[in-house]
Design goal:
heterotrimer; A alpha/beta; B mainly alpha; C mainly alpha; A: alpha/beta; Rossmann fold; 2 domains; 13 helices; 19 strands; 39% helix; elongated; B: mainly alpha; 3 domains; two-stranded antiparallel ribbon; 6 strands
C-alpha cells in the first residue's frame, strides 16, 4: 500500500511538471469565447441535461425521445460527422442541475446543451454553462426569471441561455385574457402543485386577471402525490369561483379534473390548464370529465407535421411521448443542429471549427424558424417562443377517444372564440 | 449428504434457468439496449455484450462448481455448464417467440422492442432462427468459459478475473479517468488511449497484459510471503511514527485531491463531503445512541434556509447580503441544534420503529412547510431563495468546487475529531448503554431522557453546517432539495459503511453518493443499481464495508446479536408441515 | 416484566420540565385545532352536505390506506420489521393489472359483467402483488432474520428502489389510468347529500376484505398459528408450527391485500398509475399502521380510516379558520402532527399493546 502511494505521488508530480512546461497549442480561432475544433473523425458532441430518474422522469424521457428523433432525422450525422449525444441526469433539483452543469462543462467538446427540464436546475447550472462558453436551449423551463436580466426583479439570465418553452409571462397573460375577455369570467381560482413552474404561472395569471378587472377568489395548492382532491375542491366550491386555472402536471391534473366534476357546486365550473398537461395521455387518462377543459399550449400550425413527428417517435423511441414538451425539445434540438451546421467552418480534410460566440449569435438572431411549436423568433435574452405561438385549445370527446391535438378555439388577438372544428 | 444428490443435468438446468431469467430481466427493463451503446473497448466490446454473456458466464461457473462438488469429472462439469448455457437462452427465446407472434407486446413491456430483438439475435432481426441459434451458441460458449475458469489453477484464475475487472473498470469509468488524466496529459495522448470515453484496443491490451503479469506475481509473492511468515506480522500495533507518517500522507492526499481530479470531480467530492458530514452527525444518534432517526433532512433544511435568508442578496435576504458566510455557519449550527432539541422532546418516550415514523413525519412536515404558500413571504415557497453569495475568504470568492472542497474538508475534520472524542467520553458510554438496553441503562442510574436529548441535539449540529455549505455551494435553495431521500441516503450510507465506524461513513458516502454521480451512463438505472447494491450488501456484508471494531466483536461473539430470537437457524429440523 | 414500570417511573421523575413543554405544546396544538375549527364552522363557509361528502370521501380513501396498512402491520407483528417496500408491492399489482383492465374494457367484458370482471382483476392483482411479496421475503428478507434490526430495514429500502425501477423498466414511466366502469358512475342522493356511488362501493369492498382477514386471523388454524408466531417464535416452533411457512403466509396475505387495494384504488382514483404510485400511499399507510398501533390488525384498520378522514376534513376544518393560505398543501402537516400527538399520549399507538414497546 505504501509503495503504491509513493509511486502514485511521484507519477503525479512528474505529470504536473509536464503540464507546467507543456506549450499550449496555438489555434487560429478568432471567436471571442473560443472554438471547438474537431478532427475529420471526431464526432459532433451535443449534450442533454434532463431529469431522467425519479418522479419527474416522464418529463425527461419525453424530451430525450424528441432529441433522439431529431438526431435520427439526420441519420445521426451532421456535416459528415457523427452526432454524439452525451448527457446528464439533472434530477429536477438545483443541486442536480449544478452537478450536471459542472460535468457537461468539463467536456470541452460539447457544443450545446438541450435542457434543462426544471427551472430550478437551470438557475443553478446556467452560471457554469455560461462561464464555459456553452449554450443551453431549454425545452421546458418557463420561469420568467430565467430570461430576465435585472436581479432586482429576480432575474438570473446569463448569455448562452435560450428556450423554446413559453415564458410564463406570455402564457399566464394569455390565459387571463382568454378567461376574462373571451369567456367573460370574473371570479378566478388558481391552483398550483408546489412546482416553480405552476406556482409562477398561476401567479402571472392571477395578477393579469386582477389587472383586467377580475377578482381572484381563491389561490391554493395541491401536493405532488396527492390523489384525493376533495378538500381543495370543496374549498374552491365554497369560494364561488367561475373558472379554475390549474397549470399543474400529470397525474395531479388528471385527478383534479375528474374530481372537480364530482364535487357538488363545481359540475359546471370552467376548467383551464396549461402545457404541463398538454399531452395526449391527459384526455385518455381523464376520460369524459376532460371534455370542455381549456388548455393553453403551443400552436401547432400544421398538424400534419406533428403527426409525422409522432410517427417518427413511434419508429425511433416506440409508443407515444410520455409528457407535453417533446415538440419543444424537438425544435430546440433542430435549432441547435442547424446553428452548428450554419456556423461551422469546414476545412478541406473534413475537420471543422465551430465558434462558440458565433453559435450564440446565430441562435440569438434566429427569426421565424418554422418549428413544430410554431414560428420561433429568439429575442436578446433567449426567449424563442413568443406569445404569438400560443393558442387555447378545448378538449372534446374526440380527444378522449384518441385524437390529438385538440381543436384550437382561440388565438391571441382574436375577439371571440372559434367554434371547435372550424 | 448422500440422500439429497440431484442428477447433474438437473443442477445444470436449474442454474441455467436462473441465469436465463436474469438475462430476460435485463432485456425487459431495457438495460441491454441502454448499455449496448456504451462501448467499453472501442468497436470491440460494448457493455451490452458483456451484460448478455455475464449471466451465463456466472451460471456456467456455478453449475460447474456445483457438479464438481458432487464429484463430477472436469469433462462432465463442462458438459453440464454447456447445458446450463443452453438453458439460459430459453427464457429469452420464449420471449422472442411471443414477440414475433403477438402484436403490440411493447405497448405493455416497453423495452421488448426492435432494439432488444437486434441485441439478443446479434443483429439478425430478419432471420430470427439464425439469431436464436447464434444466441444459444454464444451463451453455451460463455457458460463453458465459466466452467473452464473453475478448472484453472487458483492463482491464474484470480489474476484473470482481476485483470478483466480492471480493464472493464478503466473502460467503464472512462469519463472519470479522462477527467483526471486531462489535467496531466495533452488531449492527443488521451485520444490515443480513449476514444471519447471508451478504451482503444491497444491500451486495453496493454492494461490487460500489465495487469495480468502484475496481479499474478502479486499473488505469487503473497503466497510465498505468507508461507514464510504466518500471519502475526500484520497484527502488531503501529508505532507512533508510523501513525504520524500515515496521517501526514493522508492529509497531503486529501489536500491535493481537488488539484488532481479537476473541477467536475471536485464538485462530486463536495457533495460526498456534505454527506460524510451528515453521516458523522447522524451516526451520533443512530450509531452511538441507537436512536433511529429518519428525519435527518430537517437539520439539513434548517441550515440551508438559515444560510439562504441571512446571506441572500435577493428580496428574501434579511441582511441584503451583508452577513458573511463565516458568521452564518455558527448560526446555522445553533439553529439546527435548537431544531434537533425541540423535535427530540416529543419523541423522547418513543422507541425503535415508533421513533422512526415520528421523525420521518417531522421531515415531511418541514418539507411541506418549506414549499407552502403560507411561509412563502419568508422562505420563498416553491420559488425558493436565490442569489446566495459564495463564501468569501479574505477577499477571494470561493466560487469553484475545488475551493469549496476545503471548507467541507475542514468541517469534516473538526466533526471527526469531536466524534472520536465523544465516542470515548462519559456521554458516549452512556449513549452506548442506552443503545444496548434502555431499561437497564435507566436502572443503572443514567438519565436516559437527558442523554437522548443531548444525542439528538449534537447529532443535528452537523446537519445544519452541511445545509449552510450546501446553500452557499448551489447558490439557490429550493424546497425539493429536502426530501425524505436525503434522510434515507444518510441512513443507508451509515449502515453500508458499517454502523458506528467513521471510516465506514466515508466509504459509504463514496459508494452511495459518489458512485452514482460517476456512472452517468446508468442514470436511468441509477436507483435500480442503488437498490440492488443495498440489498446485495446487506445480504452479504450486513456489518458494513468497514465495520467498527466494537461492532465486529459484537457480531462475532454471539450469532443473534440483538434481542430478537433467531428463527431461521432453528427452522431446519421442521416438525411437520 | 414487573420491574419495567418501576424503572419507567424513576426515569421520568426528574425531568418534569420536558413534560411541561410537551404538555404546553399539546395544549397549544389542541387550542389551535379548536379555534380553527370553531372559526371555520362559525363562518359558515361550508355547508353540512359538504362536510358529509368530505367525510365519506375520506372514509373511502382511508379504507385503501387501511388495506395497505394491514400488510405493514401483519409483517411487523410477526417479524418486527418495517417492510419499507410494501408500497411497491401495492404498486406492482396496480400497475400490472391496468393492462388487463384495459383488455377487459376493450372486449366489453368490463361493462357487461362488471362485478365478475372486477373480482377477476382483484384476484389477478392480488396474485401479482403476492408473488412480488413472496419473492421479496424469500430472496431479501429471509436470510436476514437473525440480523440486527437496521439491516432488514435498509434491505427493504433497497428493495423499494429496486422494485420501483424494475417496474419502470418493464412498463415505462408513462402515467396510465384504469378504465371507467359504467356501473360505478353516477351518485347516490340521500336527501340533499350527493355521494359518488364509487365511494361506498370502495368502502364496502375494503370492509369485506378486512372482514375476511379478521376471520382468517381470529378463527382459523392458520390464523392461530400466525398469532402464536407473533407472540413467541421459539415456543411456537416447539409446538410444531413451521415458522418459515407462517411467515410466507403472512407476506402472501399482506401482498394479496395490497394488490387488491391497487385495483380498488384504481376504481376509486383511476389516474396516476405508474411506477412511482406506491411511494406516497406506502408512507401514508405506514403512518396509519403506526397510528393504530403497529402489529395490531384492528389498529391498522382504524388508523387507515382515521388518516383518510383527517386528510379530507382537516385542511378545511382547521387551517381555513386560522386564515392560513394554501391550506390544502398542509394536509400532511395535520396527518403527521396527529400522529406525533397520538404517540405522545399513547406511545404504543391507538390500539397497540404495551408488549410491542418492549419488543421494539
Amino acid at each position: 500500500m505504501k509503495r503504491l502511494l509513493v509511486v502514485l505521488s511521484v507519477f503525479a508530480l512528474v505529470a504536473l511538471l509536464g503540464v507546467a512546461v507543456m506549450p499550449v497549442g496555438a489555434q487560429d480561432c478568432t471567436d471571442e469565447i473560443g472554438c471547438v475544433e474537431l478532427g475529420p473523425d471526431d464526432p459532433i458532441t451535443v449534450a442533454y441535461m434532463l431529469t431522467i430518474s425519479g418522479g419527474t422522469a416522464s418529463l425527461g424521457e419525453d424530451s430525450l425521445g424528441a432529441i433522439e428523433v431529431a438526431i435520427d432525422d439526420r441519420d445521426g450525422e451532421l456535416l459528415g460527422h457523427e452526432i454524439e449525444l452525451v448527457g446528464e441526469d439533472s434530477l429536477c433539483s438545483a443541486e442536480g442541475g449544478q452537478a450536471a452543469g459542472q460535468r457537461i462543462a468539463a467536456n470541452p467538446q460539447v457544443l450545446g446543451i438541450i435542457g434543462s427540464n426544471c427551472s430550478s436546475e437551470a438557475v443553478a447550472a446556467l452560471p457554469i454553462i455560461s462561464e464555459a462558453g456553452m449554450l443551453m436551449i431549454s425545452p421546458s423551463n418557463t420561469s420568467p426569471r430565467l430570461t430576465e436580466t435585472d436581479p432586482d426583479k429576480g432575474g438570473v439570465w446569463e448569455p448562452g441561455y435560450y428556450r423554446t418553452a413559453h415564458n410564463d409571462l406570455f402564457q399566464g397573460a394569455i390565459a387571463a385574457d382568454f378567461a376574462y375577455n373571451i369567456l367573460g369570467k370574473t371570479k378566478l381560482a388558481t391552483v398550483h402543485d408546489g412546482s416553480p413552474y405552476a406556482e409562477s404561472l398561476q401567479a402571472v395569471m392571477a395578477d393579469t386577471f386582477t389587472e383586467l378587472g377580475g377578482e381572484v377568489v381563491f389561490q391554493g395548492a395541491v401536493n405532488v402525490g396527492d390523489t384525493d382532491m376533495s378538500a381543495i375542491l370543496t374549498d374552491i366550491s365554497a369560494s364561488g369561483a367561475e373558472i379554475i386555472y390549474f397549470p399543474i402536471f400529470q397525474p395531479e391534473s388528471e385527478f383534479f379534473t375528474v374530481q372537480a366534476r364530482e364535487t357538488p357546486g363545481l359540475e359546471e365550473v370552467t376548467l383551464m390548464g396549461a402545457d404541463a398537461s398538454f399531452a395526449d395521455t391527459f384526455p385518455e387518462n381523464t376520460g369524459e370529465p376532460a371534455v370542455g377543459k381549456f388548455l393553453s399550449g403551443p400552436y401547432v400550425a400544421e398538424s400534419e407535421a406533428y403527426d409525422a413527428f409522432l410517427a417518427r417517435w413511434d419508429e425511433v423511441v416506440g409508443g407515444v411521448p410520455p409528457s407535453g414538451f417533446h415538440a419543444h425539445a424537438y425544435d430546440a434540438t433542430n435549432i441547435l443542429l442547424n446553428a452548428i451546421e450554419a456556423v461551422a467552418v469546414v476545412a478541406d480534410d473534413g475537420s471543422i471549427s465551430v465558434g462558440r460566440q458565433a453559435l450564440r449569435d446565430y441562435i440569438s438572431g434566429l427569426t421565424d424558424y418554422p418549428g413544430l411549436t410554431g414560428n420561433l423568433t429568439c429575442n436578446e435574452t433567449g426567449d424563442c417562443a413568443t406569445g404569438e405561438a400560443l393558442a387555447v385549445f378545448e378538449v372534446t370527446q374526440a380527444e378522449v377517444d384518441g385524437n390529438w391535438p385538440p381543436p384550437v378555439v382561440w388565438l391571441p388577438g382574436m375577439d371571440a372564440m372559434m367554434e371547435p372544428g372550424s | 449428504m448422500e440422500k439429497h444428490r440431484k442428477p447433474y443435468w438437473r443442477t445444470a438446468l436449474q442454474v441455467g434457468l436462473v441465469a436465463g431469467v436474469v438475462l430476460l430481466y435485463l432485456g425487459t427493463i431495457g438495460m441491454l439496449a441502454a448499455f449496448q451503446e456504451r462501448e467499453v473497448i472501442y468497436e470491440i466490446v460494448s457493455l451490452g455484450q458483456i451484460l448478455i454473456v455475464f449471466p451465463s458466464l456466472v451460471g456456467g461457473w456455478m453449475a460447474a462448481r456445483r457438479v464438481q462438488a458432487h464429484g463430477a469429472s472436469p469433462v462432465v462439469a463442462i458438459a453440464s455448464s454447456v447445458l446450463a448455457g443452453i438453458a439460459a437462452a430459453v427464457p429469452t427465446l420464449i420471449m422472442l417467440v411471443i414477440n414475433a407472434n403477438v402484436e403490440n407486446v411493447r405497448d405493455v413491456l416497453v423495452n421488448i422492442n426492435r432494439d432488444w430483438v437486434d441485441i439478443v439475435t446479434f443483429g439478425n432481426r430478419d432471420d430470427l432462427l439464425a439469431g436464436a441459434v447464434l444466441l444459444l451458441v454464444v451463451l453455451a460458449v460463455a457458460s463453458a468459459v465459466g466452467a473452464l475458469l473453475t478448472l484453472l489453477p487458483g492463482k491464474l484464475r484470480s489474476a484473470l478475473i482481476f485483470t478483466s475487472a480492471l480493464v472493464l473498470l478503466v473502460g467503464m469509468f472512462g469519463e472519470t479517468v479522462r477527467q483526471i488524466l486531462q489535467q496531466l496529459l495533452p488531449r492527443e495522448t488521451l485520444d490515443s488511449i480513449y476514444r471519447r470515453t471508451s478504451l482503444r484496443v491497444g491500451p486495453a491490451v496493454i492494461i490487460f497484459v500489465l495487469g495480468f503479469i502484475g496481479s499474478y506475481f502479486w499473488a505469487y509473492r503473497k503466497e510465498t510471503a505468507s508461507r514464510s511468515a504466518p500471519r502475526a506480522a500484520n497484527v502488531t500495533p503501529r508505532s507512533l511514527t508510523q501513525r504520524i507518517i500515515v496521517f501526514i500522507v493522508l492529509a497531503i492526499v486529501l489536500l491535493a485531491l481537488p488539484l488532481i481530479v479537476g473541477r467536475a470531480l471536485s464538485d462530486i467530492l463536495v457533495t460526498v463531503g456534505l454527506y460524510v458530514l451528515m453521516g458523522l452527525g447522524l451516526n451520533i444518534a443512530i450509531g452511538l445512541a441507537g436512536l433511529l432517526d429518519l428525519g435527518y433532512v430537517t437539520n439539513y433544511a434548517v441550515g440551508a434556509y438559515i444560510c439562504a435568508v441571512l446571506t441572500s442578496t435577493g428580496t428574501l435576504g434579511l441582511t441584503g447580503g451583508q452577513m458573511s458566510f463565516w458568521v452564518v455557519i455558527p448560526i446555522a449550527l445553533v439553529a439546527a441544534m435548537i431544531t434537533g432539541f425541540l423535535l427530540a422532546m416529543p419523541v423522547l418516550k418513543m422507541r425503535g420503529d415508533y421513533l422512526a415514523i415520528a421523525t420521518l413525519g417531522f421531515g415531511e412536515i418541514l418539507g411541506t412547510l418549506a414549499i407552502s404558500d403560507w411561509l412563502r413571504p419568508v422562505i420563498g415557497g416553491a420559488q425558493g431563495v436565490l442569489f446566495i453569495p459564495k463564501p468569501n475568504f479574505f477577499g477571494t470568492e470561493l466560487v469553484n468546487p475545488e475551493q469549496l472542497y476545503y471548507i467541507v474538508l475542514a468541517a469534516c475534520a473538526i466533526t471527526l475529531f469531536i466524534s472520536i472524542r465523544l465516542n470515548n467520553s462519559r456521554v458516549g458510554r452512556r449513549w452506548m448503554a442506552i443503545r444496548e438496553d434502555e431499561d437497564v441503562a435507566a436502572a443503572m442510574g443514567i438519565d436516559t431522557a437527558r442523554a437522548k436529548l443531548l444525542a439528538f441535539t449534537i447529532s443535528a449540529a452537523t446537519g445544519g453546517v452541511a445545509g449552510a455549505i450546501f446553500a452557499a455551494k448551489v447558490g439557490t435553495v429550493f424546497p425539493n432539495s429536502f426530501t425524505v431521500f436525503v434522510s434515507i441516503n444518510v441512513l443507508s450510507l451509515i449502515i453500508l459503511g458499517g454502523m458506528g465506524s467513521n471510516p465506514g461513513i466515508v466509504v459509504g458516502a463514496i459508494a452511495l453518493v459518489g458512485m452514482p454521480e460517476l456512472l452517468r451512463e446508468f442514470s436511468e438505472y441509477r436507483w435500480l443499481i442503488y437498490g440492488a447494491l443495498l440489498i446485495f450488501m446487506m445480504l452479504n456484508r450486513p456489518e458494513g464495508l468497514i465495520p467498527s471494531k466494537v461492532r465486529q466483536r459484537e457480531l462475532a461473539a454471539e450469532s443473534p446479536p440483538e434481542s430478537t430470537p433467531n428463527p431461521t437457524s432453528a427452522a431446519q429440523p421442521a416438525i411437520g408441515d | 416484566m414487573a420491574s419495567v414500570p418501576v424503572a419507567r417511573r424513576r426515569r421520568f421523575e426528574d425531568f418534569s420540565w420536558v413534560d411541561f413543554i410537551i404538555n404546553a405544546l399539546r395544549f397549544i396544538i389542541i387550542a389551535l385545532v379548536i379555534i380553527g375549527s370553531a372559526n371555520t364552522l362559525l363562518s359558515g363557509r361550508f355547508t353540512f352536505e359538504q362536510w358529509v361528502s368530505l367525510f365519506v370521501a375520506g372514509l373511502a380513501q382511508g379504507s385503501i390506506y387501511a388495506l395497505i396498512a394491514l400488510g405493514y402491520t401483519l409483517v411487523y407483528g410477526i417479524l418486527l420489521m418495517i417492510n419499507f417496500a410494501h408500497g411497491e408491492v401495492f404498486m406492482s399489482g396496480a400497475l400490472t393489472t391496468v393492462f388487463l383492465a384495459h383488455a377487459f374494457d376493450r372486449s366489453g367484458f368490463l361493462n357487461s359483467q362488471p362485478l365478475l370482471a372486477i373480482i377477476i382483476l382483484i384476484i389477478f392483482a392480488g396474485l401479482v402483488s403476492m408473488s412480488v411479496a413472496l419473492l421479496l421475503e424469500r430472496l431479501a428478507y429471509r436470510p436476514l432474520r437473525s440480523a440486527p434490526r437496521l439491516v432488514p430495514l435498509i434491505t427493504a429500502i433497497g428493495a423499494s428502489f429496486f422494485l420501483q425501477y424494475t417496474f419502470r423498466g418493464f412498463f415505462g414511466s408513462q402515467f396510465r389510468s384504469y378504465p371507467a366502469v359504467d356501473a360505478l358512475k353516477g351518485s347516490l342522493e340521500i336527501g340533499t347529500i350527493n355521494i359518488p356511488i364509487v365511494q361506498p362501493v370502495v368502502f364496502i369492498a375494503a370492509l369485506v376484505l378486512m372482514g375476511g382477514l379478521y376471520w382468517l386471523v381470529e378463527r382459523t388454524k392458520l390464523g392461530k398459528a400466525m398469532r402464536a408466531v407473533s407472540e413467541d417464535k421459539e415456543v411456537s416452533r416447539l409446538m410444531g408450527i413451521d415458522i418459515d411457512q407462517i411467515i410466507m403466509f403472512t407476506f402472501a396475505i399482506g401482498g394479496m391485500l395490497a394488490g387488491a387495494a391497487g385495483v380498488i384504488n384504481g376504481l376509486f382514483r383511476p389516474q396516476g398509475v405508474n411506477f412511482f404510485m406506491g411511494f406516497v400511499p406506502g408512507i401514508k399507510a405506514f403512518t396509519a399502521a403506526v397510528l393504530g398501533g403497529i402489529g395490531n390488525i384492528r389498529g391498522a384498520m382504524l388508523g387507515g380510516l382515521f388518516l383518510g378522514v383527517i386528510e379530507a376534513v382537516g385542511p378545511n376544518l382547521i387551517f381555513n379558520g386560522l386564515g392560513i393560505p394554501g391550506s390544502n398543501q398542509l394536509k400532511d402537516v395535520i396527518a403527521f402532527t396527529m400522529l406525533v400527538l397520538v404517540l405522545i399520549f399513547r406511545p404504543q399507538g391507538l390500539l397497540g399493546e404495551r408488549l410491542t414497546e418492549k419488543k421494539a
